[in-house]
């Protein structure tokens, strides 16, 4: 009993020490002690509020900083936070399904199989592969065009021996597509040779001190058309080409002609 009385006396002295640093008149200390010790009843709390209304804002702020905002608010409102009761989710019967809280769900770590990551890169968009140069590309892969010519010959031989209609249509489609690709590649090479020739003539003219001649788009178009007609005439396909051209022009003109509505 003597030890408990001494402990109470020590607690009261420690509370007085905590409140001794405040610059508040001593007449208000009993109220502050009741706030700090939290031993007041309902009637005392009403008296505390009345007496706190007399304090200045500066004194209230010092008091709040000294004892803490949590204890200060609890003393004014008289509401104490209820301790959280830890819910036990153990099963009464191990055969029942486990009850799990929806708020705090424990995620069990899963051991995943570590698969080595495959690095795939597209050389068209990779800076490490350098810049795309069309002329170098076509020069390095010129053998592909020769392979296509050999495949066209093999497909034509296969077409002679094929009897299934669906297979025949497929082979004809492949032959036509590869012939168009070969024709487009030859046309590209011819255009590249023309550009190289024009560049060579321009350089020679500059070396001789003459003004270079730069062909316009219209002049190039007329030159290409003239060369096309000459090549068709040599192959004997000029009449056939002109007949298709006339038919195409007639269909185009017929679309723009006014139609009579009766």
Structure description:
- The chain is mainly α and 262 residues long.
- Among the domains are: 26-77, no CATH class; 132-214; 217-250.
- Helix content is 63%, strand content 0%.
- It is built from 10 helices and no strands.
Compact description:
With 262 residues, the chain is mainly α. Helices cover 63% and strands 0% of the residues.
**Helix-strand category:** mainly alpha
Mean pLDDT over all positions: 76
- Principal-axis shape: elongated
Uncertain stretches: 1-16, 35-40
Number of extended strands: 0
Q: Which percent range fits the helix content? A: 55-70%
Alpha-carbon distance between the two ends: 126 Å
Radius of gyration: 50 Å
What amount of the residues lies in strands? under 5%
Question: Please, how many helices?
Answer: 10
Major sheet details: none
SSE series: HHHHHHHHHH
Biased composition (Acidic residues): 1-20
Keywords: Coiled coil, Nucleus, Ribonucleoprotein, Ribosome biogenesis, rRNA processing
Family: Belongs to the RRP36 family.
Region (Disordered): 1-25, 78-106, 236-262
